[in-house]
Structures
1.
Amino acid sequence: MVEQQDNNPRGVVTGIMITLFSVLISTVLFALFFTTAYLKKMPYGRSQALIFQFTSIVIAIGMTQFLSRKIQGNKLSIMQGFLGGWMASLVLAIFICSFYTIFSSITGMQLLPKGAFAKVLMLYSGIGIIISLILAVILKKE
């Protein structure tokens, strides 16, 4: 008996690739705006950091859920959207911390204090849970 190979695009690898692609786009945009602000010598305080980070989280989660829905034939369950978006926010935290580390080593500016990775991860996780749930309800389609 010959088993057919499952070429279904709804597999786990597709979900991970969608998440990585969305997070990469969001991180590049974050890095572009952050670097531009640095080069223009614009102030970077808590409010600017919050706006940059919040926008990058929304972009990563929104793009992940939108692409997941489109690839699956215009279907997305609430749980699938929620978990995909939340995972995107967690991966984004890792990418953003990596960007901060690289940026700090190039410029000599200390952007994150020692041990701040856990705080950034918790911040992105908390905001990601809320935004993922809201966008999953909005973008769901059974």
Note: The helical segments are 12-39, 46-71, 78-107, 117-139.
2.
Amino acid sequence: MTAPDWTALLARVWDKEPALLPAAAPADPAHLHRTVVAACEPFRAGTVFRTLPQVRLHTPLGWLGAPGRLLPDAADPDPAAYRARLRAEPPGSGTDSGFLLSVRQPLHTDWELWSAVRDALADLWRRVGLPCLPVEAELTEADAFARTAGLAVPSEHAVLTWVLDGTLEAELHEPDGELRVLRAGAGELLYWPGGTRWRERHLDGCTTLRISVPRARRLATGAVKDLLAEALQSRHPYDGTVPCLPHPPPADRPLGPAGPVAAVGEAVRLLAGGAELPTALRTRWAAWWSAAGLDPAPDPRAGVPVHPGQRLRVLREVVRVPDGPGRRIWAVNGHAFPIGGAAGERIAEQLRPGRELTVAELCRAVGADEHNAAVLALLRRLHTLRGIDLADGGRTDG
């Protein structure tokens, strides 16, 4: 019997009400555990700030800033072995040994996992629409732990949680005041819309993959603000000083803002009024589109030489966003770059997903010499971004 399409079931209730659906996760518990262990490696020496992935070990006493050996490592072959170790040496107090290990934004460290989750999300977005901001991924391994932070304020995200092992019980307080309690087991998906207050209980050695989809208006404002800050930092570095003004201010003349602050304000005005910000937003949007909202994206793979005799296979659709006369932004697997001229469009027409042809055949189809440096450079870039594979002498690169 064919399993029901979870994306069709979820589309019926999207943005309307919580749901519990049958849905196999895009990866198995063993694969997720390997990703969790790799993400925890830098945190064994202490807390690491301002980096992704972000690892937190939550206990009945609060989250531990330096969990050290309480994090899983290579000696814990699976989530069950890790849970058994923490039960023998509980991170809490007394006999209360519950815990929740949270790893936020780990997918970009594992290309295979990132790609599988991206494909699953892309199927959903075709039914409900593609979010205009990136989503956030979280992996959890937990045992007998209640997470209550979601009760404080209505969620600014719609939440999808695949349960891979154990049981996840969610107490959902909807905007209209209705209370629902849903219990998901392995092979099921929990969903609730934005605006929901929630409390969870992770039971029976619960392992989950969660995707949080931005829904609150202020998150779009924050995304633009962050982009402005990045652009300003690259063109107007700030040395971090905070000047002090005379006090009390002189009475005979107005006192304007401090020099560095005024300079930053002027730079923001110029940036917001020029063409650079819209292009940056389009570029970021194209990258998110090609990643089905997963950000950050995996690093490019190592480049290889490209020659006319090689056979290429197109793996991914190239997202193309217009960016002014004769210009488009191309994006593949979360990475975006500009392409100009009509030749780029002719090449894109040949790069249909699943198609196979030689480099020389591609060049002839677009009216270019088979040694054309620009075409070969473009194919090298598409290869590093895993948009195409190249085969040489019967051997396909990995």
Note: The chain has ten helices and 17 strands.
3.
Amino acid sequence: MTDTDSRRRRNRFLILWVVGSGLWYALVAILQAAIRPAPGFAVVAPILVGGPLLALAAGLLILRWRR
């Protein structure tokens, strides 16, 4: 596999990750607004940040493994 293909695959993954993270944040915000009383920041923050970080780490590991 050429370096260009690897770079293109990584760029596609990063675009997908950014879009997915935005959708994740929107979903968490909608769910948080629907819950009464709203959960505190300490409860929501690990879920809000942890999901995209796990997806990024897993995706980059898969890309490195496939290279």
Note: The mean pLDDT is 90.
